[in-house]
Each structure stands twice: as C-alpha cells, then as structure tokens.
Design brief:
There is one protein chain. By secondary structure, the protein is mostly helical. It has one domain. Helix content is about 85%, strand content about 0%. The protein has six helices and no strands. The protein is elongated, with a radius of gyration of 19 Å.
Length: about 190
C-alpha cells in the first residue's frame, strides 16, 4: 500500500529527495567557507556519551506547526525549508567531523546519521507527501466542491507523527548505548 502510494507520487518524492541531496552538498560548501577553529570544540566524545538525544518534543512541536501552517497552503514550504535545513545540518556535521577526525570522523558521522536521523527523514518525506495530498484535497473542496476525504489524510498524518514519536522515544532510551558502540570509531 505504501509502495503504491509512493509510486503514484514519484515525481514529488524525486523532487524532495534531490532537494535533500542538494542541501547536504550545501552544508559541505557552507562549512568549507566558514572559518571554524577546530580546537574550540573539546570533549566531543564525552558530550556525546553523557547527553541523551531527546528530540521528542522538538519533533512533535515541529510537525504540529508544519501541519497547522500547511492550512494556509503557502505554509507547505515551511516543511520543505525544514527538509533543506536538516540536509544542510547533516552536510555541515559530516564536513566538520571529517575535517577534525579525518576518515574516522566521516565514518562516525555517517553511522551517527544513519542511526539517529534516517528513520525520521524517511517518515518526514512521507509526511510531506501526505501534507501535499491534504493541500490538494483542501483546494478541491474549496474551489471545485469536489469532496475528497480530508479525514483520511489527517489520520495518515497523525499516524506518521506517532511513528516519528515512537522512533524518537526509542532513540532517547537507547542513544547512549548506541553511541558507546560507535564512538570508538573516533
């Protein structure tokens, strides 16, 4: 069912994926154009191990705001902007780690992003596709009086929010354990 849904929206998904890749490249470029003193960042390993990753409230508030501003139709671009921001932060982080710790930093950065951001990014892409459908259905309801099922879109959106929240909860509980395993790369 999800595969058929994605196949029907392959052009929008391709656009969002290309935008995400461009944003990662932009993060690399921005970092390389900045003058950052690498010696100012100390105890990176200790900070990563001693602090838990807690994105639960952050993601809940973010997804709720994107959903609310999408009702303005123009607000959909807020979600696209956030996707671009996430990609830039990944590119920036990978560039920083590879410059500070060379190959080990790049490997750590890739593992870190795979473990802690992949599921969120994938479901956020699906979230943006569902928001796009919601906006199309609202336009059909307003201008063409074509009654599309907005309720089904909202249920899907809330289900995606629940899945992202469960993912964030799992990351919160197991982040220190996972980081202790991959921190040895640095």
């Amino acid at each position: 069912m999800i595969i058929n849904y994605i196949k029907r929206r392959k052009y929008l998904l391709t656009f969002l994926s290309v935008l995400f890749i461009v944003s990662i490249i932009s993060g690399f470029i921005i970092y390389n154009n900045c003058n950052i003193d690498l010696n100012t960042i100390n105890n990176l390993k200790d900070n990563l191990i001693n602090n838990q990753i807690n994105n639960i409230w952050y993601h809940l508030i973010l997804l709720s705001i994107i959903l609310l501003i999408s009702y303005t139709i123009i607000g959909y671009f807020g979600g696209i902007f956030y996707l671009f921001y996430e990609g830039m932060s990944i590119g920036f982080t990978l560039s920083f780690l590879s410059q500070k710790y060379v190959l080990n930093g790049l490997i750590f950065g890739i593992l870190y992003n795979i473990l802690f951001k992949t599921i969120f990014i994938l479901f956020f892409l699906l979230y943006l596709l569902k928001i796009h459908d919601l906006i199309k259905n609202m336009i059909n309801n307003i201008f063409y009086r074509n009654k599309k099922n907005i309720k089904a879109n909202l249920v899907s959106i809330f289900l995606i929010i629940i899945i992202i929240t469960i993912n964030d909860l799992i990351i919160y509980i197991f982040s220190n354990f996972m980081l202790k395993i991959i921190i040895n790369v640095l």
